[in-house]
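Encode chain A's predicted structure.
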Amino acid sequence: MDRRPAALLGRVRDAVEPPPRLVDWSLFAIVGFEVVTGLVSFTVGSASWWPLFWAHRIAGLTFVALLGFKLARVRHRVTDRRLWRRSTGLSVLTAVAAIGALATAVVWVFGLDIRLSYWTLLSVHVGFGLVLLPLVVAHLSTRFRLPRREDFDRRRTTLKYAGLLLSGAVVYRTQELTNRVLDTPGADRRFTGSQPREGEGNGAFPVTSWVADDPEPVDRGAWTLEVAGAVDTDLEFGYDEVDPDAEREALLDCTSGWYTVQRWGGLRVGDLLESAGADADARYVRFVSVTGYRWSLPIAEARDALLATHVGDARLSHGHGAPARLVAPGRRGFQWVKWVTRIEVRRRGDPAQWVVTLISGFD
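Encoded structure for chain A:
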């Protein structure tokens, strides 16, 4: 038996590598799974969702192994110019996007806060992932080959995929342990992957805007807050009439990759709803920004939310949502609507809010 390292490595790879066609379709399936779980992860911030984030990371590490099998199998098609085809450029571009997504993820989990202009590495990772999905679809279409019946040796294939997933879970836990033992910056990340921003007040955490939602500073003298919709009495307040009488500590987790814990001061939304007399059959509360951006919360959750006018001991700055922003514990940062000017009590949800988050701020 050949005991040279290359031969041993080859035998190990043969033992764990699924059939080529299954590898190709598995890569496509994992990219789709990663995009879906990644997008869903943007909308959840409570610890009960940790399995989603674990699944995303374990699938990503499994993708590393499958991509390695794929590249080892096809590398000669790139290195040998005689084998180039029209689709070779697409294949190279797909590989670059895949490696870019993986590389930015690896650097991020160890806590390196490298910025590319305005973007954090986590944002760049998301960008690579969104680009990768259509590239993988296009790449598959150039070499469309469905798996064969013999590719599905049930016991052997199941064991190989179980081994890959288990290895991904072990690597993930090892990475977390390494962060803790070496006390890397990544050790303080939340389960969402966000890194901490310490301090108190406006200057303690970054000013970010969702897509293009970035208005001119709001004139406090002209600003009003309305409470309307399914209520007994519409209410309207000027800035000087807003008396911040509630305070709470809450964690803001931004999808660009950071989180901060701050003391927020303002008005309990529940008190506003009580003053306006919310209808008994009302189900949602919608918070509307001066830009038209909006987000809705179930009414029970909204009652416990805060309409903040202060952070720390200071009034909110414009960049952080002055004159007033929503503070919704357990929600991600883009759902904490800034520059709130209207609170609407509603009997139905608002599916169109997803569209508004993408187009708000564009003229």
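The chain has two domains: 5-195, 202-359.
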